[in-house]
Specification:
This protein has 226 residues and is of the alpha+beta class. The protein is built from seven helices and four strands. The chain has a four-stranded antiparallel sheet with strand order 1-4-3-2. Residues 1-14, 187-194 and 196-201 have low confidence and may be disordered. Belongs to the Izumo family.
């Protein structure tokens, strides 16, 4: 059984993953400015314009992820290039019959959402190929800032590797807890977000109140039971 413990942080503002790509503004500015040339029916123009204007915000609404929306730059490039290719092909055509153009935009939008979901989840699943704490760089889709994801992989090939992995996890948790305690005692500092697995009902043994008396054996038992 391969399980993941994800320590991602969730930001507050919703921007949209594709919005974080370097070519997004240029591409979507072109799409919006040329939307009036793509349909014989004038009613398609405001509908299509609204779809393009709200693209980023609507993307975040439709992701429905149980984990923070954080994507690697490599995967963001793949998603963006796939979307731009579809959009460019759509814009190369002549004027379309009523209803066709906004329907095609919706189809590209839905495909983009699925690509982003898969990209984010695939990176988390890749964690299971590691043993112990693993970290990879990402971009936060919520505010387009550089971020990183720290997770715990269960793919250990021996009991010695597993013991080392659990020790590393305990060191990481205790280090985080000490840093968080120091932050809480600074009135001018913002509180750090608690890693997701520390507040999960399935891992109550790893919550901060229990860390002081947590042993290697207890942590190992807690991890292997879930």
């Amino acid at each position: 059984m391969a399980l993941l413990l994800c320590l991602g942080l969730t930001a507050a503002l919703a921007r949209g993953c594709l919005h974080c790509h370097s070519n997004f503004s240029e591409k979507f500015s072109f799409y919006r400015h040329h939307v009036n040339l793509k349909s014989w029916w004038v009613g398609d123009i405001p509908v299509s314009g609204s779809l393009l204007t709200d693209w980023s915000q609507d993307t975040m609404k439709e992701l429905h992820l149980a984990i923070p929306a954080e994507i690697t730059r490599e995967k963001l490039d793949r998603v963006a290039n796939a979307v731009y290719q579809k959009m460019d092909q759509l814009y190369q055509g002549k004027m379309y019959f009523p209803g066709y153009f906004p329907n095609e935009l919706r189809a590209i939008f839905r495909e983009q959402v699925h690509l982003i979901q898969n990209a984010i989840i695939e990176s988390r699943i890749d964690c299971q190929r590691h043993c112990g704490i693993f970290q990879y760089k990402t971009i936060s889709c919520t505010n387009c800032t550089d971020s990183h994801v720290v997770c715990f992989g269960y793919n250990c090939e021996s009991s010695a590797e597993w013991e080392t992995a659990v020790r590393g996890l305990l060191l990481y948790i205790n280090k985080w807890h000490k840093q968080d305690s120091n932050t809480r005692h600074r009135p001018s500092s913002m509180h750090r977000t608690t890693p997701a697995f520390l507040i999960s009902p399935s891992f109550t043994c790893l919550e901060p109140p229990h860390l002081a008396n947590l042993t290697l054996e207890n942590a190992s038992e807690c991890l292997t039971q879930h």
